[in-house]
Every structure is written in structure tokens, then in C-alpha cells.
Amino acid sequence: MTIDELLDAARNGSARATGRLLSLVESPRRSEVLDALGQVRAPRVVGVTGPPGAGKSTTVGALVGAYRERGERVAVLAVDPSSPYSGGALLGDRIRMAAHINDPDVLIRSVAARGHLGGLAAAVPAAIRVLAALSYGLVVLETVGVGQSEIEIAAVADPTIVILNPGAGDAVQAAKAGLLEVADIVVVNKADRDGADQTVRDLRAETAAPILKLIAAQGEGIAELVEAIEAHVRSDSPQRRAARARSQILSLAQTLLRTHPELDRLAAAVADGSDDAYSAAERLFSVPVDS
């Protein structure tokens, strides 16, 4: 099928065609797909991150249910760290969101953080454009909360929600890991456990972001989380959108430069003294990425 035929099929409800389009934007044919989309209206993008075991997928599943009750089409992009030590986390994520798997207006898709053209910084914005063209009004990005993925996601999502557990030093560890720096909303999940109030107090010393208590498995606090998301969206401004766009462009540019085919050759020239770093950097910008 051609790109246009895939788009027509996806718009008519073909899950296979949608999956194929999302695979193509992770490949060297990305630009073909994006050119075929034309101008699309950007959907709302909510980022959800936090340490393993915080209850991210349970929270995302509850959020999907809440937004479906409002009549919205929702897509979930679960970012796979592509690690042999992930322990089948994505399978577990899909099980926890199983209530929505048969809903034609909910899409759940895994995205590899590494191993495809341009890395996560390139793949996610491209996937979001495809989803927007297919009339998904809300995209939820779920990441593991242990590395560079969160910085790249924060350049795309607004708001970014950081989910933590009571006790266990999660608040301090999140601060040390820089997670709270990307947080627009902080959630203390499993708030019926001991230490929840102390964790909230610890977090208030570390961040000015709104802090909510949640028991996602029981649906408690989900309505308040939805309202916090909507309040954040209502406060959006042209300046904030421009800042996100700048961050997104810079993140993608950095990724493209790190994977530039000329980088190793130029680095070797600088290392042996036959070139200087400034001139090499200028040359790196002047050579097309796909040369």
C-alpha cells in the first residue's frame, strides 16, 4: 500500500494501517509519511514518568478511562527503554491497561527509546503528528523515569506528570535524578500507605509544582488529576508553546549531531591534531546528515 492508501485505511479505522504508519515514522521513510500528512492540529500531549513500581501504567489506565468518558480519542505511547533488564515491563503495562485494548478509540503503542532513526527525540514528535492526523485528541507518553528519555519527553509534553510512591526516599531520589525539574504536576500514588503525608511535605521542600495524592488502583484522586491537567492546559501561552518548540528542536538537533556519519572522522582529526574542535563543529553543521 502507498502512504496515502495507508492514511485512508487508518482514518477508516484500520488498526493494521495505523500500526504500519507508526512503524514507518521510526524508519528512513519518516519524511514521506510526514509530507503526506500535510498540516495537522496538534493534540494535547501529557507526559507521565516516575520510577519503576510507582504505578504509572495503572494511573495512565485510569486517566484513559476518565478522558474516554469525556468522549475523547486517546493514544498511549509507552516508551520502552530497550533494555534486556526491563523484565517484560511493557507486557505488564499492556495487562494493566487491558480494559481499553478493545476500545477502537484507544490506541496503545510501544516506542523503543533507542535503535531507530534519530532516537526518541525524533520518533515521538513524528508519531504524535500521525496520531493527530488520525483525530486522536489526547496523547499520553509514559516513560520509565530513569534517564535522558524524561528530558526528551518534557520537550514534547505539557504537562509532564511525575508519579512517586510514599516513603522509600522517592522524593529525595527524584530530586537527585532531576525528575522534579521536568515536573509540572507531582503525584504521590498509593496514598493510603504509611508515609504519604510525609512524602508530600518532603516534595513541597523540593518543588513548586502542584502535588496531588492518588490511589490509582481504586480510581481515587483521578478526577482531581484530570482537573489539574486541564488547569495546566488552560494556562498555556504562545510563549510556553514557543519554549517547548525550541526545546524540541534543540533536542532533535543534538540527537542528529550525535549520530552524524561524519562525527567519528572529525573527532579523529581533532584528536590527532590535524584539525581543531571549532572548525570541526562548523564542518559538522555544513555536511548533510544523510550524506
From TrEMBL:
Tagged with keyword Nucleotide-binding: yes
MF terms in GO: GTP binding; hydrolase activity
Coiled coil: none
Gene3D superfamilies noted in UniProt: P-loop containing nucleotide triphosphate hydrolases
Domain of life: Bacteria
SUPFAM superfamilies: P-loop containing nucleoside triphosphate hydrolases
This protein's UniProt keywords: Chaperone, GTP-binding, Hydrolase, Nucleotide-binding
InterPro entries in the cross-refs: AAA+_ATPase, GTPase/Isobutyryl-CoA_mutase, P-loop_NTPase
PANTHER family: LAO_AO TRANSPORT SYSTEM ATPASE (PTHR43087:SF1), LYSINE/ARGININE/ORNITHINE TRANSPORT SYSTEM KINASE (PTHR43087)
Name of this chain's protein: LAO/AO transport system ATPase
Organism: Mycolicibacterium celeriflavum (Mycobacterium celeriflavum)
